Structure formats: C-alpha cells, structure tokens
Amino acid sequence: MSSGEKVIHDRYRTIYTIDERPGVKTYRCRDEQSGELTLVAEFTVDDEARSDLAILAKQIAAVSHEALLPLRDHFAGDSHYFMVCADPGGQDLERSIRARGGPLPEADVLAQANRLLLLLEHLHSQRPPLFLGDLAVTDVWITDRGVWMVTPFTLAIPIGQAPSPYRAPELARADAEPTTVSDVYTIGALMYHALTGWAPPTPEQQNAGMPLPGSRTLNPQISPLVEQVLLRALQLKPVNRFQQAREMRIALETAQMMGGRSLGLGPDVLTQVTTAEAQAAPEPVAAPPETSVIGCTIERCTPASRSTGCTRSCACRTSTIPAASRLSPWLCPRPAATGVEHRVPDHLGSPADCRGDRCVPGNCGVSAGKSVAPDARHCRVCPRLDCGAR
C-alpha cells in the first residue's frame, strides 16, 4: 500500500504503509542517514497520552530479547508519537502464510512459538510488566531465515474495539487491561493461524454460535497433542487456559517429546467439565486404565494384562486420567477450577517411583480409588518433565 512521499523527522522516508489500525500506522521506511530499512510506527495521540507513551517507550527501549526487535528510536512530533525499529527483512506472518499458499510446518511453528513464549516470560517479569495486548499478525515478522520476530510497537498499541481473532475475549470490555492469560490466548491464536492457514473465529463469532474448527480438521498433519495445547490456549474463559506462558511452553515441549503420538484418550477434543457437573457426577469405582504415561513412554493396558501389569520401559511414575475428562494427563485442568479429582488405579505399578524430583527404585502403585492431591500448579498424576528426563 503506498503511503505517498513522506519524510518523518527529516530522516525516515516512507516507502509504503504496512499496517493501519485506529490511532496507529506502521510504515516501512528508509533511514536517510544510514541507508538502512526501518519500521516506523506513527501513533496519533493527545498531549496527555503522548507523555505516557514517551515513558512507556523508554521502558520498551530498555528491554532486550532475541525474539523482540529492539526499539532504536522514539520521538514526539506535532499530534503524533513515533517509534522506530530495524527492518528484519522478510514478511509479516500473514503475508508469509499467503505467499506459501498454506500452513507452515509444525516443527518450525513449535520452535518459533517456544521463542515467543520465552519472550512472554521475559516481558511479564518486567516491572511494571509488559504485555502483547492487541497483537496482530502484522506485528510478527518472519525473516528470510524463518525466524519469528515481534515488533516493539505492539507493546504500546492500545487495546482496540474492532473484533480481532488474536485478542482474548475478556479484552472486549472498555476498561479491560491485558494479562498473562490474555497473552496466552494471543500466542495460541497465532499458532492456530500458522498451523492451519486460517485465523480462528473471533470471540464475538464464537459467542454468536460459530464453533472453533479443530486444527486437525483444517490440517490433518498437526499432531493430536499440539491440537490439545491449542484448544486449551484458545478457551474463551480465562480460567480454563494456561495461566502462565511457562505452562504453555512446557506443554508444547511435552508434545514435541512425545513425538506427536496419540495418548489414546478418545477423540482429540477438549471437553470442558464444570465444577457443578463434576460434583453431580457419581463417584467412579476406579479410573479407566486404557492409557498410562511413564516418563516418555506411552502404553496401552488391556483387561488381560491388568493382573500381571503392563510392560515398563521408562522409569518414572505411572499415571492415568479419567477418560470422561478427555484430557491428556499433562493437560489436567486446575482442580480449583473444575472440581475434578484424578485417580490412579492400583494395578498400574512401575519399576520406579517418582519421589521429589528424581526417580528411585520402588513401586508406584496407588490403592484403587485413592485421590492424588494436586500441588499449586499441576495434578501430581501428571508426568513431570524433570523426573522423566533423569
């Protein structure tokens, strides 16, 4: 899109407009002093907002991370405020997907999503914390080497009101502020778009009755575990999502470690279990033993093998999850949110027991029907990466 002949701050000559949103325009420019290509964001602000934006720009300029394009320059001009960063080359995520003519390879997307989640952890640890907020696909650039980079402008762009497939539904309120959980939704939406070639329906469309298509329906090459991570990240209710970027990152690392193999828990659909439904449901006699996870090994127990136990090849705690929840063991919901207790049947023994954060000889069988207490973040029946890796 042409932006006309325009020189910003007597230095940055515009080449064309990359993106335009209410109150913000992003240009691709050439630095007349150095001859380098740059990205320049033009914010339309009043005097009070300009002062706040200048303070925020100073904080953003001090942040350094490999997945964030550094903010090189920022300055005020008339009724605008400008931010400048280096042009990484390549194209933004949306144009890259269109140019490819379809979804990006899963291995590439997972590797780059891991970098973005590490960036989130770094941004959220700042004081005060920084958030992606109203990020769009034009804020994520894919370099010629296939590396994803986030522009610093998105950290300063105010939350918009127009429907967006990448904005968490709770940010639709006029007084809403971004959080760690809303940023998790944004990363999930970006991954969904990259892996399927289609942006997810906006929260407004989903609330109106349009379902979120399963990612494997649009791209069967997506592994079942990755689909479950996406479905949890894109839950409309914040309490049902990953609560921290680190939780989602560990889930993706687990999916990679499992090599995309199915856990055998039925359809690859994330079924929500409300607290009321969990309380009303009858107490199960014993948890279904269809699938067990021992560190990095997946096994299927059959009725004939229950008396003799299942073959073990990886020394760590065995765990199962009720099939009714249709959740992977490492994606167990927060008990405080769902009221679901996960149980381990006594026949699922193992040559080793996971005690603390290391594996020691023993037997990890648990009496049938005995509840396993959850810790602050995870159900203890979930396999722990630190144990499975030792």
Short overview:
This protein is an alpha+beta fold and 390 residues long.
Task: Describe the protein.
Helix content is 27%, strand content 17%. With 390 residues, the chain is an alpha+beta fold. The protein folds into three domains: 7-86, Phosphorylase Kinase, domain 1; 91-257, Transferase(Phosphotransferase), domain 1; 275-388, no CATH class. Strand 13 (352-355) and strand 14 form a beta hairpin. The longest helix is centred in the first third of the chain and has 19 residues, at 106-124. Residues 263-390 have low confidence and may be disordered.
Determine the CATH superfamily of the largest domain. Answer: Transferase(Phosphotransferase) domain 1
Per DSSP, the total helix count is 11
How many domains make up the 3D coordinates? 3
Residue fraction in strands? 15-25%
Instruction: Estimate percent helicity.
Output: 25-40%
* Strand segment count: 14
Helix and strand layout, with pairings?
Elements: E1 7-8, E2 12-21, E3 24-31, E4 37-44, H1 47-61, E5 71-77, E6 80-86, E7 91-92, H2 93-100, H3 106-124, E8 140-142, E9 148-150, H4 180-196, H5 203-207, H6 215-218, H7 224-233, H8 245-257, H9 275-280, E10 291-294, E11 297-300, E12 318-319, H10 335-338, E13 352-355, E14 358-361, H11 385-388
Antiparallel strand pairs: 1-2, 2-3, 3-4, 4-6, 5-6, 7-8, 8-9, 10-11, 10-12, 13-14
Helix pairs in contact: 3-4, 3-8, 4-7, 7-8
